[in-house]
Amino acid sequence: MATIRASCPDCGDVELTTQDVKVRVCLDDDRGEYRFTCPICTMVVVKPAEHRTIDLLVASGVHMDTWTLPAELFETRSGRQISHDDILDFHRLLADESAIAEALASISDR
After folding, report:
1. Does 32 share its domain with 51?
2. Could you report the per-residue pLDDT of 10-32, keeping only the tens digit for each?
3. In 3D, which of 29, 70, 24 has the Cα closest to residue 49?
4. Do 45 and 90 sit in the same domain of this protein?
5. What span, in angstroms and rounded, lies between the C-alpha atoms of 9 and 43?
6. Are 83 and 48 part of one and the same domain?
7. To bridge 38 with a disulfide, which of 8, 46, 86, 88 should be the other Cys (CB 3.0-4.6 Å)?
8. Is residue 31 part of a domain?
């Protein structure tokens, strides 16, 4: 098992095994990153990685996952943007039990 040296922002350089590190690559935009839990402070560290780094990590035995961007990013947006006031109004409505009961009743009537 290969030893991998990485850097924790709080603890500095740490030594890891291939099982301690995970690589992720986005299939949509080809971005890559690696992550590990620091063995000293137990903080999860995520760092961007270039293809060369990803290739070296995978070649040494690190597991690689792929992912895609959420479909919502590609949806057409319409209507006005939600404002800070909209969020405050929504918060007030969530605290109003009669408004919630009314909304739920209107849904169940359909």
Report:
1. yes
2. 999 999 999 999 999 999 999 99
3. 24
4. no
5. 9
6. no
7. 8
8. yes
Q: Which long-range contacts (CB under 8 A, 24 or more apart) does 1-5 make?
A: 1/61, 2/60, 2/61, 4/57, 4/60, 4/62
Q: Is 38 helix (H, G, I), strand (E, B) or coil?
A: coil
Residue 101 lies in a domain: yes
Neighbours of 66 (CB within 10 A): 11
List all residues 6 or more positions away from 97 whose beta carbon is below 8 Å from its beta carbon: none
Q: Under a CB-based contact definition with an 8 Å cutoff, are residues 54 and 34 in contact?
A: yes
What is d(CA 110, CA 107) in angstroms, rounded to the nearest whole number? 6
* Domain span holding position 100: 79-108
**Residue 110: predicted pLDDT:** 63
Overall domain count for the chain: 2
Instruction: Spell out, as residue ranges, where the chain has pLDDT lower than 50.
Output: none
Structure tokens at 104: 């739920």
Closest CA to 53 of 44, 62, 45: 62
